[in-house]
Amino acid sequence: MKGTNLGELEELVLLVVANLYQEAYGFRIQEFIEERSERSMSLSAVHATLQRLKQKGYLISEYDNSAVSERGGRPRLIFRVTKAGREALILARDLRNGLWDSISDFAFN
What CATH number was assigned to the domain covering residues 8-68+75-98? Predict the structure, then answer.
């Protein structure tokens, strides 16, 4: 289905949102990706990817007002993986695993 498959960056961001759970907001997602993947990623790229994933129905978001006073009056926008997002991740994992499992032992010689 066109438009519903996960790109590499979308898969990475979706996995990070699932890992961070209650702390899945833009800057923290960027920080997590850079720490774990040793890959530089701009905050604008994170936000664009988050918006694409929301449009696909793989993420939802809500404002967290708990730390507003510490943040100069601005709430954090927290992201969460939807059921459809989880299913997309499972499909992506199964596809990758199937491809790895089908590689001949001679392929890397």
Answer: 1.10.10.10
